[in-house]
Amino acid sequence: MPGFGLLVDGFDDGVVDPVLWPQSYGSPVEVGGRALIPCTTGYAAYKSGASYSLLWSRVAARVVPPAATGATTAACSLLVLTPTTGTDAGFLVDPAQNAMGLYLRVGYADPGALFPIYDPVAHAWLRLREDAGTLYWETSPDGMAWTVRRTAATPAWAAQPDLALVIEAHRDAGPDDFAEVDSLNVTRAGRLVPTDRTAAGPGPATRTASTMTGG
Fold it and tell me: How far is 118 from 75, CA to CA, in rounded Å?
């Protein structure tokens, strides 16, 4: 069964891919190498087909939530959905509330949800991953160095082959805006750190004759 790690989109071609995002709604677009999801008093989202598993897999992306201007809630959510309404897991970033929700919900309820203060730098990248029976909610400033914000035992539904990803925006008031998403499951290059050389490197070679022979 395909894991969410196979759902990869850099949002660089200016087209909402109908194969990757067949259930999208609310007219999201791609502009300037990012997905733009309208944040209005309605709802808009990129939504994948229900054809993935979360087991031994992950969802990671760069997320810029909508502006909080004039709203009491202006949120962008990144959620893995099950076929059972209200049973899901992921993030909800709401700068109007100055908070980020880390959810593992059943019937839209999660008594163990955490709500760290939202930091647009430290929480610029979001990742939900499953590894050996544990779910991890992680954030990163650069998509390379990750900090674990919450863990929980992997729910049985994570192994189902019919899960979907939704990245949705909504606000209760204020001017229309966009949530922005980039680099969904796009692997980030690591940093190369120079090391001290303690021995001499190879010296230059001296050519004494042509290495080419023949006519």
Answer: 12
Between the alpha carbon of residue 55 and those of residues 5, 26, 117, 167, the distances in Å are 10, 30, 29, 20
H or E element in which residue 182 lies = strand 177-182
CATH 3.40.50.300 fits 4-182, yes or no: no
How buried is residue 189: exposed, middle or buried, by Cβ count under 10 Å (0-12/13-18/19+)? exposed
**Concatenated DSSP letters for 31-100?**
ETTEEEEEESSS-EEEE--S-BB-TT-EEEEEEEPPP-TT-S-EEEEEEEE-SSTT-EEEEEEETTTTEE
- Residue 139 to residue 182: CA distance in whole angstroms: 15
Top pLDDT among 203 and 88 is at 88
pTM: 0.85
Residue 10 CB neighbours (<10 A): 14
143-157, 176-190, 194-208 — most confident range: 143-157
Distances (CA, A) of 94 to 67, 71, 85, 131, 185: 9, 10, 22, 27, 22
For the chain, domain boundaries: 4-182
Per-residue pLDDT reduced to its tens digit, 78-92: 999 999 999 999 999
Pick from 174, 167, 127: nearest CA to 151 = 127
Q: What is the pLDDT of residues 38-75, one digit of tens each?
A: 999 999 999 999 999 999 999 999 999 999 999 999 99
